[in-house]
Design brief:
The structure holds two protein chains of two kinds. By secondary structure, chain A is mostly helical. Chain A has one domain. Chain A has three helices and no strands. The radius of gyration of chain A is 41 Å and the shape is rod-shaped. The N and C termini of chain A lie far apart (114 Å). By secondary structure, chain B is mainly α. Chain B has two domains: 98 residues, Orthogonal Bundle (Rna Polymerase Sigma Factor, Chain: A), CATH 1.10.1740.10; 80 residues, Winged helix-like DNA-binding domain superfamily/Winged helix DNA-binding domain (Arc Repressor Mutant, subunit A, Orthogonal Bundle). In chain B, helix 1 packs across helix 2 and helix 2 packs across helix 4. The longest helix of chain B is centred in the middle third of the chain and has 27 residues. Classes of the chains: A mainly alpha, B mainly alpha. At the A-B interface, helix 1 and helix 2 of A face helix 2, helix 3, helix 6, helix 7 and helix 9 of B.
């Protein structure tokens, strides 16, 4: 047995060696293979997740662009319609234009 | 593996090279499993914790400071993983097996009933408080300086010295009794 005092700051090599032997795990290679496999599957999982999110993101972006385009197209139409009604009223070409214009002047 | 080699490999792993990290796993798996076993006292749990530690280390490798040694950084993560697992196991065990009594701590070697030195040492270790177990294993078996162990476990260096002293004394008692049996 070692002659080291328990208070010694030096390493007890004999006890350390016996402890390493006593705690030595079995099948190191199998353990390493298992951890590496988990690492790979975790990595692949990330890549698959990323790929799935990419396509989902692309689809969502396409839908959003289409929706914005549609909204812009449809919102432009009433403005044009409103402008054309005002022009028709002012030109007096729209039936009943005199009545409408008279009601504005009475309102003032 | 020298410190220079390891630093270079760790740097490549930190850059996202999984093969380099695999080399580090291979180099440090025995140490990680021994330390996890010291905490958990069960080989299957120890392997689960060591694996969890390696996977956590891989996820955190970008934060690893390459100017510092890789081994203590990894060991800290493995110790945390083993302690987390022990907490989860303890909750589960308390819920499921609250009728099982704790083992006697009078004479672990006699309780083990085996002449195998490894069995006796493991039994003796199991009777020590976790901090003492870790201190004596990390210092005498794994070769870490007491100052590093203190940082790793978040305790003063004087406490590590005291834990090493008490742990050694208990283990030596067992070893002496085995020696006496062998002499008879």
């Amino acid at each position: 047995m070692s002659d080291l005092s328990p208070f010694s700051a030096s390493r007890d090599e004999e006890l350390g060696g016996l402890l390493r032997d006593a705690l030595a795990p079995h099948h190191d290679a199998a353990f390493v293979t298992r951890v590496r496999a988990r690492l790979t599957s975790q990595q692949n999982g990330w890549e698959e997740d990323l790929a799935r999110w990419f396509w989902q993101g692309l689809a969502a972006a396409s839908v959003a662009i289409a929706a914005v385009g549609y909204a812009m197209a449809t919102s432009a139409t009433p403005q044009q319609g409103e402008a054309s009604v005002a022009i028709e009223l002012l030109n007096g070409t729209r039936p009943g234009a005199e009545v409408i214009l008279a009601s504005f002047s009475v309102g003032r | 593996m020298t410190g220079v080699d390891e630093a270079a490999i760790a740097a490549r792993a930190a850059g996202g090279d999984a093969d380099s990290f695999g080399v580090l796993i291979e180099a440090h798996a025995p140490m990680a499993r021994r330390v996890a076993f010291t905490i958990l006292q069960d080989h299957e749990d120890a392997d689960d914790a060591a694996q969890e530690g390696f996977l956590s280390a891989w996820q955190a490798i970008g934060r690893y400071d390459q100017r510092r040694a890789f081994r203590p950084w990894l060991l800290q993560i493995v110790v945390n993983a083993a302690r987390d697992l022990r907490r989860r196991r303890r909750v589960r065990t308390t819920e499921q097996l609250d009728h099982v009594s704790a083992p006697s701590r009078d004479d672990p070697a006699r309780e083990a009933g085996a002449l195998d030195l490894g069995d006796r040492l493991r039994s003796a270790l199991a009777t020590l408080p976790e901090r003492q177990r870790l201190a004596v294993v990390l210092f005498d078996a794994e070769g870490y300086p007491q100052a590093d162990i203190a940082k790793m476990l978040g305790i003063p260096e004087g406490t590590v010295k005291s834990d090493v002293f008490h742990g050694r004394r208990a283990l030596r008692k067992v070893l002496e009794s085995v020696k006496e049996e062998w002499d008879e």
